[in-house]
Amino acid sequence: MRRLLMLLWWVAWVPRAWPQAEANSHTWLLLALRLDHGPRYSLLNEANFRRRLAFDRWQQLLLRPYVVYSLRPGLEVGLGYSYYRTWPYGRFFRPAPVPEHHAFAHMGLQHRPEGLERLSFQHRYRVERRWIGRLAEAEPDRWTVADWQLAWRLRYRLLSEYRLGTGWSVGAYAELFLDLDAPFGTRGVNQARAAGYLMRQLGPHLAAQAGYLHQWINRPPAAWESNATFNLALFYRLQTLNTISQAQDSKL
Questions:
Q1: Whole-prediction pTM value?
Q2: Is 2-250 in CATH node 3.30.70?
Protein backbone atom coordinates (compact mmCIF):
# COMPACT_ATOMS: atom_id res chain seq x y z
CA MET A 1 0.00 0.00 0.00
CA ARG A 2 2.87 2.37 0.77
CA ARG A 3 4.29 1.86 -2.74
CA LEU A 4 0.92 2.62 -4.33
CA LEU A 5 0.49 5.81 -2.28
CA MET A 6 4.01 6.95 -3.18
CA LEU A 7 3.44 6.29 -6.87
CA LEU A 8 0.06 8.07 -6.80
CA TRP A 9 1.70 11.07 -5.12
CA TRP A 10 4.56 11.11 -7.63
CA VAL A 11 2.20 10.83 -10.60
CA ALA A 12 0.16 13.75 -9.24
CA TRP A 13 3.25 15.86 -8.50
CA VAL A 14 5.26 15.45 -11.73
CA PRO A 15 3.03 17.61 -13.98
CA ARG A 16 3.16 20.45 -11.45
CA ALA A 17 6.79 20.99 -12.39
CA TRP A 18 5.57 22.38 -15.75
CA PRO A 19 2.85 24.90 -16.58
CA GLN A 20 -0.55 23.34 -17.22
CA ALA A 21 -1.31 23.58 -20.91
CA GLU A 22 -4.94 22.62 -21.19
CA ALA A 23 -7.72 20.80 -19.36
CA ASN A 24 -10.09 18.41 -21.17
CA SER A 25 -12.93 16.12 -20.06
CA HIS A 26 -13.52 12.70 -21.59
CA THR A 27 -15.58 9.52 -21.25
CA TRP A 28 -13.88 6.19 -21.92
CA LEU A 29 -15.79 2.96 -22.54
CA LEU A 30 -13.88 -0.32 -22.41
CA LEU A 31 -15.19 -3.69 -23.62
CA ALA A 32 -12.84 -6.53 -22.68
CA LEU A 33 -13.10 -10.23 -23.54
CA ARG A 34 -10.92 -12.99 -22.08
CA LEU A 35 -10.92 -16.58 -23.34
CA ASP A 36 -9.04 -19.08 -21.15
CA HIS A 37 -7.66 -22.14 -22.92
CA GLY A 38 -6.31 -24.61 -20.41
CA PRO A 39 -4.67 -23.58 -17.13
CA ARG A 40 -1.94 -21.43 -18.71
CA TYR A 41 -3.02 -19.77 -21.99
CA SER A 42 -5.52 -16.94 -22.41
CA LEU A 43 -6.53 -14.88 -25.43
CA LEU A 44 -7.70 -11.32 -24.71
CA ASN A 45 -9.19 -8.56 -26.80
CA GLU A 46 -9.94 -4.99 -25.71
CA ALA A 47 -11.93 -2.31 -27.51
CA ASN A 48 -11.61 1.19 -26.04
CA PHE A 49 -14.01 3.89 -27.22
CA ARG A 50 -12.66 7.21 -25.97
CA ARG A 51 -14.94 10.17 -26.54
CA ARG A 52 -15.53 13.69 -25.29
CA LEU A 53 -17.35 13.89 -21.95
CA ALA A 54 -20.77 14.13 -23.62
CA PHE A 55 -19.78 11.17 -25.86
CA ASP A 56 -20.57 13.27 -28.95
CA ARG A 57 -17.06 13.49 -30.46
CA TRP A 58 -14.16 11.11 -30.82
CA GLN A 59 -10.96 11.46 -28.87
CA GLN A 60 -9.39 8.07 -29.56
CA LEU A 61 -10.12 4.50 -30.66
CA LEU A 62 -7.93 1.71 -29.28
CA LEU A 63 -8.09 -1.98 -30.25
CA ARG A 64 -5.77 -4.40 -28.43
CA PRO A 65 -5.68 -8.18 -29.01
CA TYR A 66 -3.03 -10.14 -27.09
CA VAL A 67 -2.18 -13.51 -25.59
CA VAL A 68 -0.93 -14.25 -22.08
CA TYR A 69 0.84 -17.27 -20.63
CA SER A 70 0.79 -18.10 -16.91
CA LEU A 71 4.22 -19.17 -15.72
CA ARG A 72 2.88 -19.87 -12.22
CA PRO A 73 0.08 -18.51 -10.01
CA GLY A 74 0.56 -14.75 -9.78
CA LEU A 75 3.05 -14.46 -12.66
CA GLU A 76 2.18 -14.11 -16.36
CA VAL A 77 3.79 -12.86 -19.55
CA GLY A 78 2.08 -11.60 -22.68
CA LEU A 79 2.54 -10.52 -26.30
CA GLY A 80 0.16 -8.37 -28.32
CA TYR A 81 -0.69 -5.63 -30.79
CA SER A 82 -2.43 -2.28 -30.34
CA TYR A 83 -4.07 -0.03 -32.91
CA TYR A 84 -4.73 3.62 -32.02
CA ARG A 85 -6.57 6.26 -33.98
CA THR A 86 -6.49 9.72 -32.38
CA TRP A 87 -8.81 12.48 -33.57
CA PRO A 88 -8.22 16.24 -33.32
CA TYR A 89 -9.27 17.56 -29.92
CA GLY A 90 -8.34 20.36 -27.56
CA ARG A 91 -5.70 23.00 -28.12
CA PHE A 92 -3.06 20.58 -29.44
CA PHE A 93 -4.74 20.49 -32.78
CA ARG A 94 -4.17 17.77 -35.39
CA PRO A 95 -5.44 18.47 -38.90
CA ALA A 96 -6.76 14.89 -39.26
CA PRO A 97 -6.97 11.61 -37.30
CA VAL A 98 -3.54 10.10 -36.61
CA PRO A 99 -3.02 6.30 -36.74
CA GLU A 100 -0.56 4.47 -34.52
CA HIS A 101 0.49 0.81 -34.27
CA HIS A 102 2.14 -0.92 -31.31
CA ALA A 103 3.76 -4.30 -30.79
CA PHE A 104 4.23 -4.97 -27.09
CA ALA A 105 5.34 -7.47 -24.48
CA HIS A 106 4.44 -7.37 -20.81
CA MET A 107 4.90 -9.16 -17.51
CA GLY A 108 2.32 -9.16 -14.71
CA LEU A 109 2.90 -9.95 -11.03
CA GLN A 110 0.18 -10.35 -8.41
CA HIS A 111 0.47 -10.93 -4.67
CA ARG A 112 -1.64 -10.72 -1.51
CA PRO A 113 -0.31 -9.54 1.86
CA GLU A 114 -0.25 -12.27 4.48
CA GLY A 115 -3.36 -12.13 6.62
CA LEU A 116 -5.18 -9.78 4.18
CA GLU A 117 -6.71 -12.19 1.69
CA ARG A 118 -9.17 -9.61 0.36
CA LEU A 119 -6.41 -7.21 -0.65
CA SER A 120 -4.30 -7.76 -3.77
CA PHE A 121 -1.51 -5.87 -5.55
CA GLN A 122 -0.71 -6.13 -9.24
CA HIS A 123 2.44 -4.93 -11.00
CA ARG A 124 2.47 -4.68 -14.78
CA TYR A 125 5.61 -3.96 -16.80
CA ARG A 126 5.14 -3.33 -20.52
CA VAL A 127 7.51 -2.41 -23.36
CA GLU A 128 6.05 -1.02 -26.58
CA ARG A 129 7.46 -0.59 -30.09
CA ARG A 130 5.49 2.26 -31.66
CA TRP A 131 4.82 3.21 -35.29
CA ILE A 132 3.35 6.73 -35.21
CA GLY A 133 1.81 8.15 -38.37
CA ARG A 134 3.15 11.45 -39.70
CA LEU A 135 0.58 13.45 -41.62
CA ALA A 136 1.20 15.38 -44.82
CA GLU A 137 -1.25 17.53 -46.79
CA ALA A 138 -1.69 15.75 -50.12
CA GLU A 139 -4.25 18.30 -51.31
CA PRO A 140 -5.91 21.28 -49.65
CA ASP A 141 -7.84 19.94 -46.62
CA ARG A 142 -6.90 16.34 -47.41
CA TRP A 143 -4.25 14.76 -45.22
CA THR A 144 -2.54 11.39 -45.60
CA VAL A 145 0.13 9.45 -43.68
CA ALA A 146 3.42 10.38 -45.33
CA ASP A 147 5.64 8.10 -43.21
CA TRP A 148 5.98 6.45 -39.81
CA GLN A 149 8.00 7.56 -36.81
CA LEU A 150 9.45 4.71 -34.74
CA ALA A 151 9.82 4.89 -30.97
CA TRP A 152 10.22 2.75 -27.84
CA ARG A 153 8.17 3.29 -24.69
CA LEU A 154 8.11 1.67 -21.25
CA ARG A 155 5.05 1.49 -18.99
CA TYR A 156 4.71 0.53 -15.34
CA ARG A 157 1.38 0.19 -13.53
CA LEU A 158 0.76 -0.55 -9.85
CA LEU A 159 -2.81 -1.55 -9.00
CA SER A 160 -4.38 -2.35 -5.64
CA GLU A 161 -7.83 -3.94 -5.26
CA TYR A 162 -9.89 -4.78 -2.18
CA ARG A 163 -12.84 -7.21 -2.21
CA LEU A 164 -15.76 -5.83 -0.23
CA GLY A 165 -17.82 -9.02 -0.40
CA THR A 166 -21.12 -9.92 -2.16
CA GLY A 167 -19.48 -9.31 -5.54
CA TRP A 168 -18.24 -5.76 -4.92
CA SER A 169 -14.64 -4.51 -4.95
CA VAL A 170 -12.82 -1.18 -5.00
CA GLY A 171 -9.45 -0.38 -6.49
CA ALA A 172 -6.89 2.28 -7.34
CA TYR A 173 -3.91 2.39 -9.63
CA ALA A 174 -1.18 4.62 -10.98
CA GLU A 175 0.76 4.25 -14.22
CA LEU A 176 3.82 5.91 -15.73
CA PHE A 177 4.76 6.03 -19.44
CA LEU A 178 8.44 6.62 -20.23
CA ASP A 179 9.71 7.53 -23.72
CA LEU A 180 13.10 5.96 -24.51
CA ASP A 181 13.31 7.91 -27.78
CA ALA A 182 12.16 11.46 -28.47
CA PRO A 183 9.17 11.08 -30.83
CA PHE A 184 7.60 14.30 -29.56
CA GLY A 185 10.73 16.25 -28.75
CA THR A 186 11.77 14.90 -25.37
CA ARG A 187 12.73 11.70 -23.58
CA GLY A 188 11.45 10.77 -20.14
CA VAL A 189 7.91 10.91 -18.78
CA ASN A 190 5.49 10.84 -21.68
CA GLN A 191 2.31 10.33 -19.69
CA ALA A 192 1.05 9.68 -16.15
CA ARG A 193 -2.27 8.35 -14.87
CA ALA A 194 -3.95 7.97 -11.51
CA ALA A 195 -7.35 6.32 -11.10
CA GLY A 196 -9.89 4.80 -8.73
CA TYR A 197 -12.84 2.52 -9.46
CA LEU A 198 -15.74 0.47 -8.12
CA MET A 199 -16.36 -2.99 -9.60
CA ARG A 200 -19.37 -5.30 -9.45
CA GLN A 201 -19.40 -8.99 -10.39
CA LEU A 202 -22.66 -9.48 -12.31
CA GLY A 203 -22.37 -13.23 -12.81
CA PRO A 204 -19.86 -16.05 -13.24
CA HIS A 205 -18.53 -14.52 -16.46
CA LEU A 206 -19.45 -10.81 -16.45
CA ALA A 207 -18.20 -7.84 -14.40
CA ALA A 208 -18.86 -4.10 -14.67
CA GLN A 209 -16.64 -1.24 -13.52
CA ALA A 210 -17.05 2.52 -13.13
CA GLY A 211 -14.43 4.99 -12.02
CA TYR A 212 -12.46 8.18 -12.47
CA LEU A 213 -9.05 8.54 -14.13
CA HIS A 214 -6.85 11.61 -14.35
CA GLN A 215 -4.39 11.68 -17.21
CA TRP A 216 -1.41 13.98 -17.73
CA ILE A 217 0.29 14.03 -21.15
CA ASN A 218 3.64 15.71 -21.74
CA ARG A 219 3.44 18.33 -24.51
CA PRO A 220 6.97 19.65 -25.18
CA PRO A 221 8.72 21.92 -24.79
CA ALA A 222 7.26 22.87 -21.38
CA ALA A 223 3.57 22.14 -21.09
CA TRP A 224 1.19 19.40 -19.95
CA GLU A 225 -2.27 18.35 -21.01
CA SER A 226 -4.56 17.53 -18.08
CA ASN A 227 -7.52 15.25 -18.82
CA ALA A 228 -10.33 14.38 -16.41
CA THR A 229 -11.82 11.07 -17.54
CA PHE A 230 -14.92 9.14 -16.51
CA ASN A 231 -14.42 5.40 -17.05
CA LEU A 232 -16.96 2.66 -17.77
CA ALA A 233 -15.92 -0.94 -18.46
CA LEU A 234 -17.43 -4.37 -19.07
CA PHE A 235 -15.34 -7.53 -18.65
CA TYR A 236 -16.46 -10.88 -20.02
CA ARG A 237 -14.52 -14.08 -19.32
CA LEU A 238 -15.06 -17.46 -20.97
CA GLN A 239 -13.41 -20.87 -20.92
CA THR A 240 -12.90 -23.23 -23.82
CA LEU A 241 -14.42 -26.71 -23.67
CA ASN A 242 -10.91 -28.07 -23.15
CA THR A 243 -10.47 -25.89 -20.06
CA ILE A 244 -13.84 -26.96 -18.62
CA SER A 245 -13.03 -30.61 -19.27
CA GLN A 246 -9.67 -30.32 -17.50
CA ALA A 247 -11.32 -28.65 -14.50
CA GLN A 248 -13.92 -31.43 -14.27
CA ASP A 249 -11.27 -34.14 -14.58
CA SER A 250 -9.28 -32.56 -11.74
CA LYS A 251 -12.30 -33.02 -9.43
CA LEU A 252 -12.64 -36.76 -10.11
A1: 0.85
A2: no
